[in-house]
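Re: beginner question about structure tokens

> Can someone show what the tokenized structure looks like for a real chain? I only ever see the sequence side.

Sure, here's an example I had lying around. Input first:
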Amino acid sequence: NNGGYQSVAAFENETNPSQEVMGILKNNCYDCHSDQTQYPWYFEIAPFSYWMADHIKHAKGEFNVSAWDNYSIKKKDHKLEELIEKVEKKEMPLDSYTWIHGDLSEEDSKTLLLWADLARLRYVEELKVSSK
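And the corresponding structure tokens:
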């Protein structure tokens, strides 16, 4: 966990989330999927600390917005596609996260999904252009 705002700046600049969406991402996604993890007090207690460290490492391996600059256009599109799929199926945020932090409201889910669909358009278009 070595990132300040700069660690998510490329992702936010490129995907252009509204202030509302940035709040949703910060409160529901960035703890596990960025280098801006805000560790809760119980992170200091074993075995929770081991479980959480492993969980966060795995989550960042799947999707880390702090590594957005390192992703290809195809991978960026795919990661947003996966985000949409996981939120639609209510697989994200994970139950283990929502026990403490609360779940996404229906309104927040819809807002996040609309933003992700719009953000994907950029990459879909870039992929079409590059395949010609």
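Each token stands for a local structural state, so reading them left to right follows the chain. The chain has a mean pLDDT of 84.
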